[in-house]
Write a structure and sequence with these properties.
The chain has 95 residues and is mainly alpha-helical. The protein contains 3 helices and no strands.
Length: 95
Amino acid sequence: MTSAKRSASEDLEMRQRRYLWSMLVRTLCFIGLVITPSPWRWTFLLGAAVIPAIAVVLGNAADRRTADAPPSQQDQHDRKELSPTVTIHGEVDDD
């Protein structure tokens, strides 16, 4: 497994799938609300009321992992920085 992020389309598809499953469970809660006796109805009612909020949060949860691993202390120490007075000469390609 790599540390690379998922593509945007794969991430969207995964979030849509999570939302769909949440809404399926909510639908089952509504069906359970209609067909079960009184003590269980309150559980199904609570599930049908709370699941949409959870589904929206899970549906909007984007993959925020970074592709790069954090630099180690040795890498930060060995890294050389350019001073503000250094100019790098070169050309710009218009491609």
